Amino acid sequence: MPTVEKFSQAMLEKYVKARGWKYLRDGDGDFRVDFAYDDSTGCELTLWLIADGRQKEIFYVRVASDKRIPKTDWARAMMICNTWNKDRRWPKAYLNVRNPDTDTTATIALEQHLDCEKGIHQELLEDFANTIWATSISFWEWAHKEQGL
Fold first, then answer.
1. In sequence order, what are the beta bridge partners of 106?
2. Where are the beta strands (DSSP E) in 2-143?
3. Element (H or E) spanning 78, and its range?
4. Neighbours of 125 (CB within 10 A)
5. What's the gap between Cα 142 and its chain centre?
6. Alpha-carbon torsion angle 92, 33, 38, 59, nearest 10
7. DSSP classification of residue 5
């Protein structure tokens, strides 16, 4: 039976190492895994695995893409994200604009958070990360092939 333990970056490291992924760590200790361009998604994807929150108790999975959305397509991109969010449970999709007054392009962010304050077992962490990663790929396949993004 899986053992519940305190959520930690060591659990995230175990996850990426078990998959044999090459990864980077930023100054906060967050994990970044870069994936090459894929024709089915029409972009390169980056998976972030983050311990967030004041006590690093929130498991935060974020998937970014190299696809830039021109300002003229922001409204359509937001509708694509809204449609995804209405029809699917995860991950949350949104148009990420840093400064709407000066930016000429934006990106779409996909993310999901899990509160692990009371602990988590490795199997649940891995299942959650796998689900968000797989459904993020599904988002980009759908957005690219069916929505023309």
1. 69
2. 24-25, 31-38, 43-52, 58-65, 69-70, 92-96, 105-115
3. helix 74-87
4. 23
5. 16
6. -20
7. B
How confident is residue 1, by pLDDT bands cut at 50, 70 and 90? confident
Name the 3-class secondary structure at 117: coil
Q: How far apart are the first and last CA of the chain?
A: 44
Burial of 139 (0-12, 13-18, 19+ CB in 10 A): buried
CB burial of 64-101 (b: ≥16 within 10 Å; e: otherwise) equals bbebebeeebbeebbebbeebeeeeebbbbbbbbeeee
| Tens-place pLDDT, residues 40-60 | 999 999 999 999 999 999 999
- Extract the tokens encoding 129: 């990360």
pLDDT digits (tens, 9 = 90+) for 6-44: 999 999 999 999 999 999 999 999 999 999 999 999 999
pTM comes to: 0.94
- The Cα–Cα gap between 138 and 141 comes to 5
